[in-house]
Amino acid sequence: MKDTYLENDATGLAALVASGEVTPDVLLVCALDRVRTINPALNAVVMLQEDVARNAIRAGLPDGPFTGVPFLLKDLGAEAIDFPTNNGSVLMRDSRHRYDSALYLRLRAAGLVSFGRTASPELGIGPVTEAQVYGGPTRNPWNTDYTSGGSSGGAGAAVAAGIVPVAHGSDGGGSVRIPAASCGLVGFKPTRARLPEGPGAGEGWGGMAIDGFLTRSLRDTAALLDAVNGPDLGAPYFPPPMQGNFVQALAAPTGKLRVALCPMTLSGTPVHPDCVAAVEAAGHLLESLGHHVGPVQLPPDLDVEAMMIAWTRIVACGTALSVRTVLNGRPLNPALLDGVTRGAVAYAEQISGADYLHAIGEIHAFGRRMAHFLAQCDVLVTPTLAAPPAPVGQLKPDNEDFLAYRTGPGGVFEYSPFTAAFNASGQPAVSLPLHWNDNDLPIGVHLAMPFGADEALMSLSAQIEAAAPWWGKQQELVARLP
């Protein structure tokens, strides 16, 4: 049964359950066995709730597109009564929610069998997952000396290692796409407000955060997005309506697209040669598929640096709000927070209400500049990251200078200069596993399209997957693990 479990994506496993060839109980046992054998080396899966999963199966699962498929929730967001959370923090260890989020209810209705959570950096602020609450870093299954990314780093490691075929993630600055790139997976960020945020909140980080999934196949991503698509009641934003759905978009023709290749940062600075090679190879592939491919013409006034300063201020304020809400007037014991989080709280104290509103305005202004920029092409292709996956410890969250950690030399923005731009603009973007370097580390390729063009982005991604399938490479990793 182990081979069957590992050789199928979530859609394939659901089909086996529907045909009666396997049972949800058997699939759950396979997932739990993988946790026991592989997770100690990865530190990806936390807060197991095996009894909750078994009770759900015993009570009868809903008839959905993923009935019986084992699933993991990120240890941040996806609020659920039956699933305590740490939010990646010692301060918030074993917190419990009194409600089920709209996202979780839709995932449960899809028939998924949630049985635990996956590690996240504290409150999601980082491209690596090394929070102290888990007792050590989360590691990349391709090479455990390297990070699996963040903030959905536990989800990325768990899916890449075959513990589960798909897992929940969230993305406020690249937190689905960064682990997808680091772990050789698909990570799709939909247009702002395409997915529900409530009822506990209407938005995250000024509207920049959205949920998503780590998967090995595009058809799983598409079906998961369809299962949870649509804002919840009272959402402060509403996305452009789709003509169909994500699964239908997999088979839709793309037409001949204008592709702008950007093998450099959006500010024009160089990136690692491995990342340049990945973008150039993607360009050759897209050209072979009949698209018009040319070099990007970066506008001189895009000002990505100003956007990142604004992003950093908004995230610091959001982090401080989360910490203060938990403290409820009590003094903070600094030992209960990681250094970066302490730094974010301290930085937020320097930001006035006017400063915060100015930051929101700068984010929106950047979105307008980005919209004009993308008018020159149909799709922008960049690396997902400016370098291969970082060694564990390189971006350890112990720097209390939050601004320097994010925007200083050797900081987060230097390592990940692409993904947050599309959280700020709200545009759909995806990281696809199209390249591995000479050290057999994944190098993600990032594609972005105009606001609301989710279906077109899914169609193009499906065309790429068909022409340059990555399933076999992913299976090489799964096969060599215990």
Task: Write up what this structure looks like.
With 482 residues, the chain is of the alpha+beta class. It has a single domain, classed as Alpha-Beta Complex (Amidase signature (AS) enzymes), CATH 3.90.1300. 40% of the residues lie in helices and 13% in strands. It contains 18 helices and 13 strands. The strands form three sheets. Strands 6-8-7-12-13-11-9-10 form an eight-stranded mixed β-sheet, with helices on both faces. It has a three-stranded mixed β-sheet with strand order 1-3-2. The protein is globular. InterPro entries: Amidase, Amidase_CS, Amidase_dom, AS_sf. Belongs to the amidase family. It comes from Sedimentitalea todarodis. This is Amidase family protein.
Unreliable stretches, pLDDT < 50, 5 or more residues?
none
CATH class: Alpha Beta
Level-2 CATH architecture: Alpha-Beta Complex
User: How many DSSP helices?
Assistant: 18
Give the mean pLDDT. Answer: 97
**How many domains?**
1
The CATH topology is given as Amidase signature (AS) enzymes
Gyration radius, rounded: 21 Å
Q: What is the makeup of the main sheet?
A: 8 strands, mixed
- N-to-C terminal Cα separation, in Å? 14 Å
Give helix % range: 40-55%
Structural class by helix and strand composition: alpha+beta
Lateral arrangement of strands in the main beta sheet = 6-8-7-12-13-11-9-10
Oligomer state equals single chain
Strand proportion, as a percent range, falls in 5-15%
Strand element count: 13
The shape, in one word, is globular
Write the CATH homologous superfamily.
Answer: Amidase signature (AS) domain
